Amino acid sequence: MLYTLLVSAMSGLALVQAQSEATPNPTIAATPTSTVGIPTIEGALVYDGPPVIGYTGPGGNATIQSNNPAASYEAVFPSVEFDNATGTTISGSVIAAAAANGTGVAFTINIANLPSPALYGPLVYHIHELPVPSDGNCTGTMGHLDPTQRGELYACEAAAPQTCQAGDLAGKHGNITATTWTVSYTDLYLSTTPGSPYFFGDLSVVIHSSNATRLTCANFTMVSTSNTTTGTTPTVTPFKGAANTIVASASVIGAAALALVVFFLKVDSQSGIIDLRTNPSIIIHVLKCLYCA
User: Fold this and answer.
1) Can you give the pTM of this predicted structure?
2) Which residues of 90-110 are buried (b: 16+ CB within 10 A; e: fewer)?
3) What are 57-79's pLDDT values in tens digits?
4) What CA–CA distance (Å, rounded) separates 129 from 285?
């Protein structure tokens, strides 16, 4: 009897496992447990197949970002040839500002000197999860901005942008299709709210060739606290630190102490030394000089 129960239980488990494998959950089962045998370049998965309809990450769909505070950011590509194979120095900028109604982010993109999409395309671009490091190495930006942990195994389904990585701008809005390229659109799944998992203002944008090689990259910088999408050069105010404040405070304290000492000094006029109590203008002059220090 016990043997029969054990056999039945094992058969039931095998049936459940077989059914699970036959009808995988698109949000979990399709996620690979290993990238062995899957092509990667610079850590990115390379997959040229069609999107998997309805596929999303463990975090579910991205959420529409509303109540975005007014702010404009700009990423300007540096005049550096990152990839010798293409022989081009990409120029231009990506401007992103909170939409007028506070829902989503409005993008205005102007890029020139791109390599030929026919030879190196499709050219794609994304917001990455880290800023460009001080050495300018685009690889240091790591992967795409991906709050829902969707991953890059399957292509973005443009018809359902909420299922895509938040930073996959090309997947949601189209690839770069020309050597000089201009486009404008609103992305509902990015935020100008610092601290939001969908915030991009302190991150970077990277352009890739078809094999995921990083062709250029740039950091976003705030250029305005309004919703304007006109590019401007940010004004940087040098940080002087607290030293100036400390020096000024010390000068005031020192001057006050000196004034007290001088006030109580009684200098013998017969010795030829001036009595400072009868010459207040000298004290005032000393105080002014000390404060200017």
Assistant:
1) 0.65
2) bbbebbbbbbeeeebbbbbbe
3) 899 999 999 999 999 999 999 99
4) 58
